[in-house]
Amino acid sequence: MRLFIAVELPPEVREAVHAALDPLRDRFPRIRWVPAENLHVTLRFLGELGADRQAEIEGSMLAVARRWEPFELSCSGVGAFPSGRSAKTVWVGLGDPGGLLKRLAADLDDELAAGFGREERAFKPHLTVARSTQRLPLLDGLPPLSLPSEAFTVDRLTLFRSHLGGPAPEYESLATARLGA
Ligand code: 3AM
What we know:
Blueprint lengths: L1 E7 L2 H10 L1 H6 L4 E2 L6 E9 L5 H13 L4 E13 L2 E10 L4 H17 L9 E11 L15 E3 L1 E8 L6 E9 L3
Bound molecules: ligand 3AM.
Ligand 3AM binds next to β3.
């Protein structure tokens, strides 16, 4: 199973982010835009693992979640990787003033290290919103976008299974762990 652990977004935030990107989507309709229902914050990609590892992952998620309390995040602008002029990935950044999301991802990484190794790449809080196979000037002359400004609450971790192969991946929620429970 192809697995990852993420923070889900409230449906109204997913829809608002998706709608805010309409002007950009109108300019570049042919790149792969992430459908609203797939928007999430990946905390840790686990990769292909046997179903026999699921209980261990859930145990780690619960151990971490118990040490935390719910906290707030908000959207903070649009960016692109590697750069706005020559982009393959477009993302919406997340305002995480206390660095809590980063610490949560690090806590999860520590908990998973013994069984699953460590994530080598630095954690950057974001929502991936579009992917392109070619590098394109996706953010050149960025049209005005009004991202949702209200904060939303991070109150659980979710283990997702990716089903690839369709026009967009399908993310199946396998388990959740509530922060502070
Ligand atoms: O939501 P984002 O885009 O941050 O890019 C994939 C996505 O992250 C990432 O896991 C999330 C759910 O699919 N992902 C896919 N393959 C990966 C890999 N080999 C990967 N992250 C790290 N290494």
